[in-house]
Design brief:
- It contains 3 helices and 5 strands, in the order αββαββαβ.
- By secondary structure, the protein is α+β, with helices and mostly antiparallel strands.
- It has 2 domains: about 45 residues; about 70 residues, Roll (Outer membrane lipoprotein wza fold like).
- The protein has a 5-stranded mixed beta sheet, with helices on both faces.
- Strand 1 and strand 2 form a beta hairpin.
Length: about 120
């Protein structure tokens, strides 16, 4: 009888360990899922850095620089002087007045626009 009780206690202890490791695994998977969701959200649009109300601009086919700035709702007191566009780790700088001349630049998913 005592041997059966000892086996039952060990079985319950082992079940508890499995539950703890299972809980740890679930927590780790939830963390990774959250990181993946954040990464997908960043890659599903364009990010605008600077004085804007909405820094994440959702992606739509044919999105341009002027549309992204308008969607981000620029809130700066003065018009930006310089625009930096970073794509795939490479940054291009341009005078912001190019937009006033009617020139518009097509964007790609994941672009980061910085208004200075």
């Amino acid at each position: 009888m005592k041997a059966g009780l000892v086996i039952l206690i060990f079985a319950l202890a082992a079940a508890g360990c499995t539950t703890n490791s299972s809980a740890r695994l679930k927590a780790q998977n939830a963390f990774l899922a959250g990181q993946n969701a954040a990464l997908q959200q960043q890659q599903s649009g364009v990010t605008v850095i600077g004085p804007v109300q909405n820094p994440h601009v959702p992606w739509v086919a044919g999105l341009t620089l002027a549309q992204a700035i308008a969607t981000a709702n620029y809130t700066g007191a003065d018009a930006p002087k310089k625009v930096l566009i970073t794509r795939a780790g490479e940054t291009a700088a341009m005078d912001a007045n190019i937009l006033l001349d009617g020139t518009d630049i097509p964007l790609a998913v994941g672009d980061v626009i910085e208004l200075r």
